[in-house]
Design goal:
205 residues; mainly alpha; Four Helix Bundle (Hemerythrin (Met), subunit A); two-stranded antiparallel sheet; binds heme C
């Protein structure tokens, strides 16, 4: 595909993506300028459950081949209930999907190369997509008025299953599109619909 056309096409897609995410962006072919506003969406990486770094002197000491280094991230939290543990796992897994999605869009939007890694990210999305239902195995809705998963997921499991299955199918289709050398811009656009629809109907902001 002609790269200017690809960038222009993706600019339109990204315009919509970015609007949905509450982020202001200007996409110019060959150049991307972004001003991120506080937004919690498919692309957000600022989460209330992220923890502040600890003091250097309190950091856990790890040793290895490159000498001793303190890990300033607090050691893994212990989760008091299975609901809390699953919520954390679900959120981290969602962030992983977001990371792969954004790595893909950055590849398509820049001239920095990495086309050979597109399949890796697409396959990762398809694998995570095939197991997305596992992130909802235990009822773990957010507390009333708080951000997170809606009770509707567990009240209407058959309806929710339509969304997880559709995402599994579409992420597999996208990985196949990459394998076939198909239209990645439209493929990513189609996949994003399933992220957005599920969030609109089953996620509380
Ligand atoms: C079948 C439903 C569904 C699909 C499909 C889905 N999500 Fe989610 N996502 C959720 C729900 C529900 C939450 C809220 C989870 C919680 O806070 O417990 C969420 C939360 C998130 C979060 C916030 C995580 C955090 O740390 O708070 C991100 C980022 C995210 N999703 C990205 C994506 C992306 C990107 C896609 C598509 C590639 C996607 N999601 C597809 C249901 C879905």
């Amino acid at each position: 595909m002609n790269s200017r056309k690809l960038l222009a096409g993706f600019g339109l897609v990204t315009g919509a993506y970015v609007l949905a995410a509450g982020i202001v962006a200007f996409v110019i072919p060959g150049e991307t300028a972004r001003a991120a506003a506080p937004a919690s969406d498919v692309v957000s990486h600022n989460h209330s459950h992220d923890h502040a770094h600890v003091d250097p002197d309190q950091a856990e000491q790890l040793t290895g081949q490159f000498g001793a280094h303190g890990d300033r991230h607090p050691p893994a939290q212990v989760f008091a209930t299975v609901e809390e543990g699953l919520t954390e796992r679900r959120r981290r897994s969602m962030s992983a999907k977001s990371g792969h999605f954004r790595a893909l869009s950055a590849t398509l939007l820049s001239a920095a190369g990495g086309e050979d890694m597109v399949q890796t990210h697409a396959d990762a999305l398809a694998l995570l997509g095939s197991q997305i239902d596992r992130l909802f195995e235990i009822a773990s809705p957010a507390a009333e008025g708080e951000k997170g998963a809606l009770q509707a997921i567990w009240d209407a499991p058959e309806r929710f299953a339509l969304y997880t299955e559709a995402f599994a199918d579409e992420s597999a289709r996208f990985a196949q599109t990459v394998r076939d050398g198909g239209d990645l811009v439209n493929g990513l656009h189609d996949l994003r619909y399933y992220c957005v629809a599920c969030h609109a109907d089953f996620r509380q902001r």
